From TrEMBL:
GO terms for molecular function: peptide transmembrane transporter activity. The lineage of its organism: Bacteria, Pseudomonadati, Bacteroidota, Flavobacteriia, Flavobacteriales. This is MFS transporter. The keyword Transport applies. SUPFAM superfamilies: MFS general substrate transporter. It is found in: Cell membrane; Membrane. It comes from the Bacteria. The keyword Plastid does not apply. GO terms for cellular component: plasma membrane. Its main location: membrane. Belongs to the major facilitator superfamily. Proton-dependent oligopeptide transporter (POT/PTR) (TC 2.A.17) family. It comes from Kaistella carnis. It is a multi-pass membrane protein. Keywords: Cell membrane, Membrane, Peptide transport, Protein transport, Transmembrane, Transmembrane helix, Transport. One of its GO terms (biological process) is oligopeptide transport.
Length: 532
């Protein structure tokens, strides 16, 4: 079975002119996209880790001293627009530029955005210009790199879900490193240093992608080539589904309805999940015990050391495997990626040494956000193998499981918040509740997000795949808008009903959506017409 799947994949790569070098059983080109996306996510999540905390920090600490409500509303608008602009970026790539040029344009614009934000100390205007550039650049970048991942595999390949999960590990490797280093440097050294660092690695991502473009064959070169690839995909779909014609209007309609339902389900998920950079950051900053002394402080320093070294070591090993396959043919890609990793190792070791020289351990408020990405990095491969070899339920069941797990994570926050008095502005709740929440949120994310991306790719008509990915991210935009507005109510709700009530609300809503998915599972599977 595995040999057959490999033969199908190799045949597909040959048709599209993609380099057939393999890494961990997947195309080497997947890992070029892996590192490109990793550095883009470094920049975005490094920025996200700092945004709310920077806005609410006191003027004497270099922040802007905004209210929680105002900061979370801006957070919601920023993250919402970041996920809304991919709709336009997908259309532009489909009709005008092709995927590759869109990715390069987006990466360059985001690099300029970080440079502007780093100059916020000179003028507030630079900060807002930087946010705008980040939003526009992400719109060109985000949907099109996801589209390219989907086109590396035929729809009949059982490895496609696993490929998206590996790609998702790259997303979270970048997110982890960005939140860890930008968050730490921003809070402990200076906000503008944290904002600027994010842009440096966005630039490295641009360079390593630029010098490896030929590895992708004809994928993403121009709109005309996109249509050529689409024709190949349609042919493969018809060959693998002999009992029906995948281009029949009724089949397309049913599959698009399922895609739409999955998008709505993702809104319920990310509405809760995106509290991480909003209300959960406020909870970490003002309501969590973050100063540790004695043995507790020493234990944390060693845990933080492992959390710093282990993920960097994993992605360095992935780079080593990739370099063995493509270094001779694409040397500059490996050179620039290798240089970026040397800098990452240097910053990681500097951070560890600096913390061990401190008498007590003060956990940065942004530190908790790295837990999501750490859990992704350590669990993504296991989830991928689990779906591939142990239990591979339908798409609706996987998404429902993700919704249930993210809801369950808020139960821990609600329980930990029960001791906080009504209207309290500060508290010292144990950090274990945030850690448990992030663990279950991560498990839920692995059930929903990479699987959702894979099903968008498999169920969508290939000619419009960039547009459909744009719509997928539009659903995330809606979720972020809602997350920001509801998260901004943290003070009002906690003053009247308590912090526990605030968090239990975010737990109940996604569970309700999960129940609906499970109830309609059979109908949805039927409407997918053979896509699994």
């Amino acid at each position: 079975m595995n040999l057959n799947q490999d033969d199908i994949l190799i045949k597909h790569l040959s048709k599209e002119g993609i380099d057939d070098k393999m890494v961990m059983g997947h195309p080497a080109s997947l890992f070029v996209l892996f590192f490109t996306e990793m550095w883009e996510r470094f920049s975005y999540y490094g920025m996200r880790a700092l945004l709310t905390i920077f806005l609410v920090s006191k003027l004497t600490e270099g922040g802007w001293e905004w209210s929680n409500e105002d900061a979370l509303q801006l957070y919601g608008w920023y993250t919402g627009l970041v996920y809304l602009t991919p709709l336009l970026g997908g259309i532009i790539a489909d009709k005008f530029t092709g995927y590759r040029k869109a990715i390069l344009i987006g990466a360059l614009v985001m690099t300029l955005g970080h440079a502007a934000i780093a100059m916020e100390g000179i003028s507030e205007t630079f900060f807002y210009i930087g946010l705008a550039l980040m939003i526009l650049g992400n719109g060109m970048f985000k949907p099109n790199i996801s589209s390219m991942v989907g086109q590396l595999y035929p729809d009949s390949s059982a490895k496609k879900d696993a490929g998206y999960t590996i790609f998702y590990m790259g997303i979270n490797a970048g997110a982890f490193l960005g939140m860890m280093l930008c968050g730490y440097i921003g809070e402990k050294v200076g906000w503008h240093f944290g904002f600027g660092l994010a842009g440096v690695f966005m630039f490295f991502g641009l360079l390593q992608f630029f010098f490896a473009q030929k590895i992708f064959g004809i994928i993403g070169t121009s709109p005309a080539k996109n249509e050529e690839v689409a024709a190949i995909f349609d042919e493969e779909n018809q060959m693998s589904e002999a009992e029906e014609i995948s281009s029949r209007p009724a089949v397309i309609r049913d599959r698009l309805i399922v895609v739409g339902i999955f998008m709505v389900a993702s809104i319920f998920f990310f509405f809760a999940f995106e509290q991480a950079g909003g209300s959960m950051s406020i909870f970490a900053k003002d309501y969590t015990q973050r100063t540790l002394d004695g043995n507790a402080g020493l234990i944390f320093k060693w845990i933080d050391t492992l959390l710093t070294i282990f993920p960097i070591a994993i992605v360095t090993y992935v780079l080593y495997l990739l370099s063995k396959q493509i270094a001779k043919k694409y040397p500059l890609t490996i050179v620039f990626t290798g240089l970026s990793f040397l800098i990452i190792w240097g910053l990681g070791i500097w951070k560890i040494n600096r913390e061990f020289n401190q008498e007590n351990a003060e956990v940065a408020a942004s530190w908790f956000q790295i837990l999501n990405s750490f859990f992704i990095i350590t669990m993504a491969t296991s989830f991928s193998k689990f779906w591939e070899k142990k239990w591979n339920p339908s798409g609706p069941v996987k998404l429902a499981l993700g919704l249930i797990l993210v809801g369950f994570g808020f139960v821990f926050l609600a329980y930990g918040s029960m001791s906080i008095p009504l209207g309290a502005k500060t508290a010292s709740v144990s950090m274990i509740w945030l850690i448990l929440a992030y663990f279950f949120h991560t498990a839920g994310e692995l059930c929903l997000s990479p699987v959702g991306l894979s099903y968008v790719s498999k169920l969508s008509p290939k000619k419009f795949i960039g547009l459909l990915f744009g719509l997928w991210f539009t659903a995330s935009a809606i979720a972020n808008f809602i997350a920001g507005q509801t998260g901004a109510m943290i003070d009002k709700i906690s003053e009247t009903y308590g912090m526990a009530t605030f968090f239990i609300f975010f737990g109940a809503i996604p569970v309700f959506a999960a129940v609906l998915l499970l109830l309609f599972n059979r109908k949805l599977v039927k409407m997918m017409h053979g896509i699994h």
